[in-house]
Amino acid sequence: MRIADMLVPEGMIPNLSAPSGAAAVTQLVAALAKVRGVDVETALKDIAARERTGSTLIAHDAHHVAIPHALTPACKQFLMAVGTSRDGVPWDPPNRKADLVFVLIGPPQTHALHLRVLSRLARLCATDGFLESLLGASSPRELLERFAAAEASSEEIVTAEGLPTFCVLGAGHGGMAMAGHLAITGCKVNLFNRTEEHVQPVRDRGGIDVTGEVEGFAALNLVSSDPAVALDNVDVLMVVTPATAHRSMTEIIAPHIKDGQILVLNPGRTGGALEVAQVLRERNPLVHPYIAEAQTLLYAARVTNPAQVHIFGIKNSVPLATLPAYQSVDVLPVIRKALPQFVPGDNVLKTSLDNIGAVFHPAITVLNAGRIEDTHGDFEYYVEGVTPAVAAVLEAVDQERVAVAGALGIRANTAREWLYLAYDAAGKTLLDAMRSNPGYRGIQAPGTIQHRYISEDVPASLVPIASLGEMLGVPTPAIRSMITLASAMHGVDYWAQGRTVERLGIKGMSVKDIRFLVVGAEPTGSAAPPTSSPATGPTDEGPFSRRPKETRF
After folding, report:
1. Which residues contact 192 (CB under 8 A, 6 or more apart)?
2. Which residues contact residue 315 at a Cβ distance below 8 angstroms, ignoring those fewer than 6 apart?
3. Which terminal CB of the chain, N or C, has fewer other CB atoms within 10 Å?
4. Buried b vs exposed e over 364-394: b needs ≥16 C-beta within 10 Å?
């Protein structure tokens, strides 16, 4: 990556005219805001605060260069704008005129990249003819070309220092978005996918073209279908696949996971971390990774071409919990260096049972199956698809989910509460709250009932809730009816495929022992999962490590 790769013509203003440095910065930030997501007011405030600590105007021979910059939450990626002025822009202090203005802004996680760019700019400005060449450009395109020419002999900017290294597992919509976002942030990123043909275009391109909430070319360190190669020497494994693939993905990578690596399910749905831990106990009982799950996917994104992804949105915060819970203090600081949107979740029971997709997706799809097949999804899913009768079923499913959570001592948000927290959508009933949510307007129904709203959300969300309810003595008739109908519609036994308590490794455990398990205390019951293998003998630790480990980062 070079500085020229981060520049866009829209952020280049030759012959900049401004009565003051503040006015020049405003023009340049506003130019960036037209093509990138920038909160102009916040950016200007943070730049001004940085300027008050000391002027960024620097003398280079006959020229003066201003480099106002700030780490700021006003944008989601590192951005840079350039302005040139033959007449000079008055800069106060120190009452001089700036011939060139470079504005740099980026979120806190791009700090290392920020420093590298400042260092590269200092070197370029000291190069004979560089500043005069930029001042001679008459158009944004020419200015960008001259910048690129001056930097052509410079080495790539290596930005991963101080940031964790990542392997993103899964090259679907979410995986491509996460790999692209992390790489643009400055992280060293590997991309793994089980199907070689699926990632060949990304390998040929050398990375991913990203548009939308963040933009630019995301150069990847490595693209591979070989798990041993992809997982080697990385800190964090981001699994971004449908929840139904968590088990098979863990089976594939289990022989290659190393002690201390962080494995994060994006998202875990219901019971994801428990299932992964169970698979690791079976396939590689001596390895000691950290296991975590996100409550929901960080991105709304779509792959638009084989090596291109469009990111529609990045959530402001997503709860993340570890198994056991006390390891969050080790895991979150590492991940938040690159993705500060992740916030502490209480434990994996809380993230699992606050899975609102379990309430909405299967029931709306099943109850609208005829309409979906007749219209190929030509109706508004959350508006026209949710009538009073459908909403009554959603309420019943939601009440059962909350009751199962309550039996485990977890205070789960109701679907109506979640709508208010996520969208500020209020209503006396769930139907009222859904209809008052403008975010649901315009979202079309799936074009077919062969959709992940059933194939993923039933086995990975409804089945574990119903299975837990059965073990704990909590009736779940509405949820069970949805599972039965979905199985009949798809011709699949989702009870057999789904995350039952047996598959989660918690069959027969008491509520006390389950809670001890997820927080990392020593279970007292006879059904507690083992931490040793008959073939290998006892171990000090396991995926359900009972005692705190040292911090590895």
Report:
1. 167, 168, 169, 170, 171, 224, 225, 227, 230, 231
2. 296, 298, 299, 341
3. C
4. bbbbbbeebeeeebeeebbeebbeeebbebb
The residue from 64, 114, 246, 361 that is catalytic is 361
The two tokens of residue 17 are 């005219």
Kindly give the confidence (pLDDT) of every residue in the chain, 553 residues in length, as a single tens digit, with 9 standing for 90 and above. Answer: 788 888 999 999 999 999 999 999 999 999 999 988 899 999 999 999 988 888 788 887 788 899 999 999 999 899 999 999 988 999 876 678 999 999 999 998 888 788 888 888 888 888 889 999 999 999 999 999 998 999 888 877 766 667 899 999 999 999 999 999 999 998 999 999 999 999 999 999 999 999 988 999 999 999 999 999 999 999 999 999 999 999 999 999 999 999 989 999 999 999 999 999 999 999 999 888 999 999 989 988 889 999 999 998 888 888 999 999 989 988 999 999 999 999 999 999 999 999 899 999 999 999 999 999 999 999 999 999 999 999 999 999 999 999 999 999 999 999 999 888 877 889 999 999 999 988 788 889 999 999 999 999 999 999 999 999 999 999 999 999 999 999 999 999 999 999 999 999 999 999 999 999 998 866 554 444 433 333 333 333 333 343 333 333 2
HSE-CB at 264 with a 13 A cutoff on CA atoms is 29
Q: How many residues are recorded in the chain?
A: 553
Which of 457, 490, 513, 540 is catalytic? The answer is 457
493 is catalytic: no
Nearest to 363 by CA among 460, 444, 267, 462: 462
Q: For residue 170, which of 189, 146, 148 has the smallest C-alpha distance?
A: 189
Q: Which residues pair with residue 100 across a beta bridge?
A: 65, 84
Residue 102 DSSP label:
E
| Cα–Cα separations (whole angstroms), residue 281 to 15, 104, 287, 542 | 65, 48, 9, 7
